[in-house]
Amino acid sequence: MKKYWLILMCFIAILLAACSDKESEGGGEKSGDAVEYKLVYSGEIKTLNYLKTAETNEFAVAANLVDGLIEYDKYGIVKPGLATEWSSNEDATVWTFKLREGVKWVTHDGEEYADVVAQDFVDGLAYVLDAKNESATSWIATVVKNGDAFYNGEITDFSQVGVKAIDEHTLEYTLEAPAPYFLSMLNYVCFFPVNGEFIAEKGDSFGTTRENFLYNGAYILDKFEPQNQRVLVKNETYWDKENVFIDRIRYKYNKEAATVAPELFLRGEVDYAGIPSSILDEWFNDEEKKSLVRQSKTDFYSYFYALNFDPQFDAEFEPENWKVAVNNKDFRKSLFHALDRESAMLTLEPYNPTALLKNTITPKNFVDVDGVDYTQLEPLKDISNNDSFNKDLALEYKEKALAALTGKATFPVKVLMPYNSGVPDWANRSQVIEQQVENLLGADYVDIILEPGPSTGFLSEVRRPGKFALLEANWGPDYADPSTYTDPFTEGGTYNKPELAEGYADENGKSKYQNLVDAAKAEIDPAKRYQLFAEAEAFLIDEAFVIPYAVGTSGGVGYVASKLNPFEAQYSPFGVTAEKYKGQHLLDKPMSNDEFKDALAQWETERAEALAK
């Protein structure tokens, strides 16, 4: 048995002793002795049901209300959450967790409801894998033995699924195949606990109000008034409340939040604001304002442009003509090489746009094999190290596409490209792309049509129903394996249905990309596994099913004014850790950009040392 917990606990003790004098002291607005953090938002959440949603703004709230088995420290080192220790067998197919005793579920008014026990994790997974509940994260949970079979109705006895409460405080998972990265998956909402009695009693109303919800996390939802406000208050029964330094988090709704936030910040009405590129020069050229604004910290969200092979938009935008065009590889490649990503990125990062660009779906520094970064494995290496924007190639592929599609498609091809109307930089970026691509390829070849989408429910109303031809989309990793970035494009995945592309079916009836991913998943040896995933991802990009674009930034904006220190936050490329406020203080004054750069360099050095240990 591999014993992780003893080494881990020793490391944490050393780390805390070494870093205790580097913690920021709390500032911010106080009500009496309460520290309050204030924000304004426009994207409303539709549910608190963390076992069902896959939308970031929804599970970001739940991450502060419910704890899972593990957490991460500010350097990305795994540490105990509701599990105090864990172990796995030699091939990483059986994982055993010892739970922390005395943790309570409480109601919306802070009254104790029940102890948190191992069965709560069994009940949570039972909900996620019950197809009638339509959990958007069930596909992740099928890593557990018989999870997929139960979800698809091939077996009906949940006791055959690989999750078991050995006793009140011992939990065991048995996996479908070896998964040495399984620990990282537990940071995602589909593996969170739920009190089975409570969710059975509430049924479909679970997560619809703050009353129809149980809390075991750092905060309780004190107010939940959609399109008005939501307020989180510190959970006084929380097992680790001494590490919760912000007492109240107040979100105020404003449909123009992204536009008004900078002014509200200057007036002291909010403690965080994204600073759009349209006013960035003004802030940096103002003696008072320039000390308030800094760069955002980058994250591991991957941004790309998806080309939709199953268009479901209105007839006026000619979906059938788009299907003819997008199924021609030369047409796709003309778009692939015509998109000037650096010009587009200027709308988010006007000073150093290339720093955020990437040429692959999987970002650099996510995983490596024997010290070699995944993106540097062949044949992904050539893609990773070369800019896709190439005017000559774009025009060359245009001519090939015109020759092949004459008499089959109507030109110009209408390219419906929606954007979230609640994100100013996204709107600006869409306009840049429209003008740049049409100017290069010709408005007689493509007609890019911009359409403002809703600020609330954009994913469910636009992206998931396929109401687009070309769309800026993103994906964040759920666990530490390349499959987390390849899976969204497989059959039944979240995105643009590349399995429907014509001419790519293999003899077994599956798409070539699906077979490449399946072969990679079947390989256990990490070096061979990652090599096969690199081949699958290279195929996806080389066929221009997607156009990789950039890495994400915290909050989706390039520059912010914030009273939070980003280097105190729990850090992890995957799961919901980064959404937690636990462990963070409010600063007396915002961090300037120079202060941010110095702090980033120090954090990167300290993180490298922590990972090495």
Written overview of the protein:
The structure is a single chain. This protein folds into two domains: 2-15 and 24-253 and 557-612, 3-Layer(aba) Sandwich (D-Maltodextrin-Binding Protein, domain 2), CATH 3.40.190.10; 299-554, Dipeptide-binding Protein, domain 3 (Roll). The longest helix is centred in the last third of the chain and has 20 residues, at 593-612. 31% of the residues lie in helices and 20% in strands. Helix 11 (329-338) packs antiparallel against helix 14 and helix 18 packs antiparallel against helix 19. Strand 20 (413-420), helix 15 and strand 21 (446-453) form a beta-alpha-beta unit. The strands form eight sheets. Strands 1-6-7-11-10 form a five-stranded antiparallel sheet. A five-stranded mixed sheet has the order 2-3-14-13-12. It has a three-stranded antiparallel sheet with strand order 15-24-16. With 613 residues, the protein is of the alpha+beta class. GO terms for molecular function: peptide transmembrane transporter activity. Pfam families: SBP_bac_5. One of its GO terms (cellular component) is periplasmic space. Keywords: Signal, Transport.
C-alpha Rg (nearest Å) = 24 Å
Number of distinct helices: 20
CATH architecture of the largest domain: 3-Layer(aba) Sandwich
- Relative strand content: 15-25%
N/C terminus separation: 21 Å
Subcellular location: Cell membrane
Domain Solute-binding protein family: 78-495
GO molecular function: peptide transmembrane transporter activity
Protein name: Peptide ABC transporter substrate-binding protein
